[in-house]
Amino acid sequence: MFDYKLLSALVTVVEQGGFERAAQVLGLSQSAVSQRIKLLEARVGQPVLLREVPPQATEIGRRLLNHVQQVRLLERDLQGQVPELDENRQPERLRIALNADSLSTWWGEAVAQFCADHQILLDHVVEDQAVGLKRMRAGDVAACVCAAERPLAGARSTFLGSMRYLALASPAFLARHFGDGVKADGLARAPAIVFGPDDYLQHRYLAALGIGEGFNFHLCPSSEGFVKLLLSDLGWGMVPELQVREELDSGRLVELQAGLRIDVPLYWHHWRNGGELLGQLTRHLARTAGKWLVPGPA
Amino acid sequence: MFDYKLLSALVTVVEQGGFERAAQVLGLSQSAVSQRIKLLEARVGQPVLLREVPPQATEIGRRLLNHVQQVRLLERDLQGQVPELDENRQPERLRIALNADSLSTWWGEAVAQFCADHQILLDHVVEDQAVGLKRMRAGDVAACVCAAERPLAGARSTFLGSMRYLALASPAFLARHFGDGVKADGLARAPAIVFGPDDYLQHRYLAALGIGEGFNFHLCPSSEGFVKLLLSDLGWGMVPELQVREELDSGRLVELQAGLRIDVPLYWHHWRNGGELLGQLTRHLARTAGKWLVPGPA
Description:
The structure is a homodimer.
Chain A: H1 4-16, H2 19-26, H3 30-44, E1 49-50, E2 56-57, H4 59-81, E3 92-98, H5 100-104, H6 107-118, E4 120-126, H7 132-137, E5 143-146, E6 155-169, H8 171-177, H9 184-189, E7 192-194, H10 201-208, E8 217-219, H11 223-231, E9 237-240, H12 245-250, E10 254-255, E11 261-271, H13 275-288
Parallel strand pairs in A: 3-4, 3-5, 7-8
Antiparallel strand pairs in A: 1-2, 5-11, 6-9, 6-10, 6-11
Helix pairs in contact in A: 1-2, 1-3, 1-4, 2-3, 4-13, 6-13
């Protein structure tokens, strides 16, 4: 079997963000922690950590971290049956990739009680909804929320519901750029706001209006910043309805064209052998996500 | 001189997120764009683009992009004097690294009018306030907002003001974990929320209370998600006062200890030879940032 003393040193250095704090948590000297990491690297024949501040796991390091996480989940199941195995049980860490818009809107409310009940700590990794599965394939996360339906080999996917996106701008922006109505040539010139290079929602909206060529845009990789830029009259953009109910009610943001919306389906992907905890979280999400997400298209 | 026809193909592919859209924007066939990129790579002797969807610039590619951006800023200055040089002037793109909390709060309002007046499109790159300078050093951005004062060689730094952070949690979280008052041993056990591996604000807060060892935390790399997790009773964490005025007024979030705050200074770093536009933006920010940021410590 692997030497879990060494693996646990790696996990602690990464979780605590440094050798000094890892040593405190493990009750070891800093040089003992460092020694364990070096021994681990000698065994796997390559670096597991980049010695940055804070230390970052290499690709092989991330695979080891993911393995330890899966082992911990299995241990947890066993502890449920044999509680005396580990008296000083630490809260479990679960690493989950999800799109920024979920994390900014419904996610916290959906998982809060579950985390408190099961003593779970969450490591959230933000990925655009189109690319979250990459993280799972890389062995970097235990589960992910993303727009792709097809599960990876060894994993399952569950439809949670769709996020509804509206094309919004401030009244001042609309007046400046679309004084005589929202038309195709104006839309191609008025600046849009795009979350990042993986965000094609604005392209899809324009395509639905028959606008295929390039357009001007600001890049803003922050959900809250995105809305702030809209409110500051900097551009138009696609925003989850969940995130801007108040701005819509007060009229601070308005739709470019009433009724033209994009629903993005969200799927929960998780490893099939991820242990009972992950199974419970899956059932919890499938049961509750409908409070925030709309039903179609699935 | 460099062949700007080739460089401009590179810039357009990256800005438009693909060869097909770049070809539309440049009015070329897709294979002509692809040919120009290959020629550029033959000249520099290594790949400038990773052929992913969307294409990503390699490190050398990013340096070329940054060079083109600087050249464009200089061209812009010249066009101010000789307007007939380029009739079909495109809006200028300015690539700026800043901390997520600035982008989520004051930044949009501070730059909106300036961008509209000068026809600028912004590419925001989010970096923790401690590491934004890395991006400048890598030649990846024209300017950055970060916590470090010392400018890079060839750059200048200007103090903008400080963001004030409060340690906050929901009343329900406080009641659950600190029924008999906020004390050191409780704080070490109650889960915190940490933005990412570069976020040491929670550590600094605990250190100020004499708590030096490790603590439990969720990771949440989203400013708005961070506040959502606080509101869902998942943990306590340091949040910019600017971001939660409403939650503080309504009592949905409360301070752990009244009066113990952390002020993080923010500096504007920009290349000295960045052209007149960057100089104007610098003066604009220095003049207006005080509306949102607190004066000390500088």
